[in-house]
Specification:
Number of strands of chain B: 8
Structural class of chain A: alpha/beta
Strand order of the largest sheet of chain B: 4-5-6-7-8
Order of helices and strands of chain B: EHEEHHHHEEHEEEHHH
Distance between the termini of chain B: 62 Å
Distance between the termini of chain A: 42 Å
Oligomer: heterodimer
């Protein structure tokens, strides 16, 4: 027990820098009185004191690593305590945490020990044991180790719900500097392979109903923000390409936590949390608000505004598109109004069929009028946008929102 | 104008709504007779619960709402919010008058908006129970969890846990409302504090003694895990509390400190 406790301490501590937390998007029904059931909805079972959700048992299989990536706490040259689980230990922890409703499943990553295949084989064996010997239907997220053989990746796709290869450094030039043993082709090759395999299974499923699940929750990756000099434009273009070409389900962004005293990476006083938050907001605009990258950042404005969110920033740069008439504009344009989210936009479009909407209705429906009021017209709104030039409007928006509310993470570091 | 008294059950409320329509009467209020405070001024109309009438009301609601109204009304009822009965009556009245299922999407209507908001509160509480229930394995091999949710969500969470934990016996007990769920690996049933299978004392005892031999070990492992995944450089207690309000802590193993 004390040995397991020690391993868990070391190997969860080393895995925590992976921002991926999702347990959603996979349907895996419980048959024949097995253990566990995934119905597509993710569940966050707990929240750490840094406010991030705990959904999966997120651990490394081992933190022994043959690589020496400057941004990574487990790099070969770092003097830390090392440990490695056995397959049985990981299976036992997963099952027993799951039975007590602590977790939705397992997130298993690993340092590279011996070789890519040797490592990948261990991860696959954990997933296979859970599925086959324990009839486990909870969520399994495995790391796809760069350079692992297609056969192992294929098997991993059969037993897990999601696979991820982390890019970490958002350009190949920078990657070469901080992680000399890594390269982009090794990362992109498994992504492409898995994406093609998933398509193949999907096609097969159309003809053969009993086709097994293959990676039902797709792939994700992570980009570190602030460990290398890339602009937000470069980061968002990379993410956009990954969503479109590799059809990733999620790109996670991790504000670089200065864990290393390695001179290949910058020395930061604190992680760039505001910037990380802005990149996530921009990512949301890409995925749920039908924005394109060049509407959010451009060569002229390659970085996101840290003071206002990217939607406000867009609206200020495009005065010709506003104000938006709440009772007439189409859904797409209502979605672009700062302060109106996907849910409010749906409510507006559905309700205005029955009656004309006024400002009071919008407020009750949950629209953030503090921001929205500058960009809309409807009965009851005092539209004054014309009277202000963008700079003045920006000041009004800034002063009407407390900084703490707008970017909660600031309050501790401001 | 009458004040309708019902027995506090869902069928009772539906019967009362039935009577309102039968009487062609706008109720002043519909009140659970157990909490009703007598007043001489009101025209009281006690209602005898009648499952046939209740069923007719539910069928009527479903017929006018593409089948979603019945479940919605039930969830509103489980909120136990003060005055929810009259709100439900008004929603039913709206459905009957408009006879248009889409009316439930007119969020500019105050009754529709209120129902949507309460439904969201209920769904959030159900989701929190899916997340925050913590089972402890007792030496009789049953997994026990104790909860005290803000709303009466026990009837809404059984399916989820039954599907998930199909191969283990478990109990989820609401200590505020003194009843719960018992799943014996075959059937799911309601139990109350006087249940033969499990008395309330048993549920409590499971927390203090007669735990499975390995239970403490897994709790320690979970606590340790919870500690070591926090990134100190990113500590943000405000955010932590927003996601995990203090009132839920008492049943969360990872938030219990001290016991080693």
């Amino acid at each position: 027990m004390s040995r397991t406790l020690e391993k868990l301490t070391i190997l969860s501590g080393a895995a925590k820098y992976d921002a991926s937390c999702s347990s959603s998007g996979s349907k895996r029904a419980n048959h024949n009185k097995g253990l566990g059931n995934s119905d597509g909805m993710g569940i966050c079972h707990s929240y750490t004191e840094d406010g991030r959700c705990v959904s999966l048992l997120k651990i490394l299989f081992t933190n022994h690593c043959i690589y020496d990536c400057a941004y990574c706490v487990s790099r070969r040259s770092n003097d830390v305590r090392r440990a490695a689980f056995t397959v049985e230990e990981v299976v036992d922890l997963t099952i027993n945490f799951y039975r007590r409703n602590y977790i939705e499943g397992l997130f298993l990553s690993s340092g590279i020990f011996k070789s890519a295949d040797y490592t990948m084989e261990r991860l696959v064996r954990v997933a296979k044991t859970l599925r086959q010997q324990h009839n486990f239907n909870g969520y399994i997220h495995l790391k796809a180790i760069p350079g692992a053989s297609p056969e192992l990746l294929h098997e991993a796709g059969l037993y897990s719900d999601r696979l991820s290869v982390n890019i970490e450094i958002p350009s190949e030039v920078s990657l070469k500097k901080v992680a000399p043993e890594k390269n982009y082709p090794d990362i992109i090759t498994p992504m492409n392979y898995l994406s093609d395999e998933k398509d193949r299974y999907k096609d097969e499923k159309k003809h053969i109903r009993k086709t097994p699940l293959f990676l039902p929750a797709g792939q994700s990756t992570q980009l570190i923000v602030g460990a290398s000099p890339e602009s937000d434009l470069q980061i968002l273009n990379l993410a956009d390409g990954l969503y479109k070409q590799q059809r990733l389900k999620r790109v996670y962004y991790s504000g670089y936590v200065p864990i290393a005293t390695d001179n290949r990476v910058p020395v930061l006083k604190a992680p760039p949390l505001v910037r990380e938050n802005r990149v996530y907001q921009a990512d949301w605009l890409l995925r749920f608000y039908h924005f394109s990258v060049d509407e959010i950042v451009s060569e002229a404005h390659p970085n996101l505004d840290l003071e206002v969110d990217p939607k406000v920033s867009y609206a200020l740069r495009h005065p010709e598109k506003f104000p938006v008439d709440i009772n007439k504009a189409d859904y797409e344009m209502i979605l672009r109004v700062p302060g109106i989210g996907v849910k409010s936009a749906m409510k507006i479009v559905k309700s205005r069929v029955h009656q004309r909407l006024n400002l009071d209705h919008l407020q009750r429906m949950g629209v953030a009028l503090k921001r929205a009021r500058f960009f809309i017209t409807c009965p009851g709104s005092q539209y004054q946008h014309k009277d202000y030039e963008a700079g003045r409007l920006r000041q009004m928006i800034l002063s009407s929102e407390s900084v703490a509310r707008q970017t909660p993470q600031l309050s501790l570091f401001g | 104008m009458s004040l309708y008294l019902y027995d506090g059950s869902f069928d009772g409320l539906l019967t009362a709504i039935f009577e309102c329509f039968a009487d062609r009467c706008e109720p002043i209020d519909i009140v659970n007779e157990e909490i009703y405070q007598a007043s001489l001024l009101e025209d009281l109309r006690p209602v005898q619960t009648d499952t046939t009438k209740a069923e007719r009301v539910i069928k009527g609601i479903d017929a006018r709402s593409d089948g979603v109204g019945g479940e919605l009304v039930y969830q509103l009822f489980l909120s136990e919010l003060a005055g929810i009965e009259l709100r439900i009556y008004r929603l039913v009245r709206l459905l009957v008058r408009q006879n248009d299922p889409n009316i439930l999407e007119n969020f500019a209507n105050p009754d529709v908006l209120y129902s949507a908001q309460v439904k969201k509160m209920i769904s959030r509480e159900v989701h929190r129970m899916h997340a925050f229930v913590r089972f402890q394995k007792a030496d009789n091999d049953i997994y026990y969890a104790v909860i005290s949710p803000d709303f009466n969500v026990i009837p809404l969470i059984g399916d989820h846990f039954q599907r998930r934990y199909a191969d283990q016996p478990w109990v989820i007990f609401d200590t505020r409302r003194h009843y719960g769920l018992y799943y014996d690996v075959n059937n799911l049933s309601f139990i109350d504090a006087s249940s033969d299978i499990l008395s309330f004392a048993t549920v409590n005892a499971a927390v203090n003694s007669s735990l499975d031999g390995l239970e403490d070990q897994y709790q320690q492992l979970w606590k340790q895990y919870f500690q070591s995944v926090t990134i100190q450089e990113r500590r943000n207690i405000k955010l932590h509390l927003r996601h995990m309000p203090r009132r839920y802590w008492k049943y969360l193993i990872e938030k219990q400190v001290g016991r080693k």
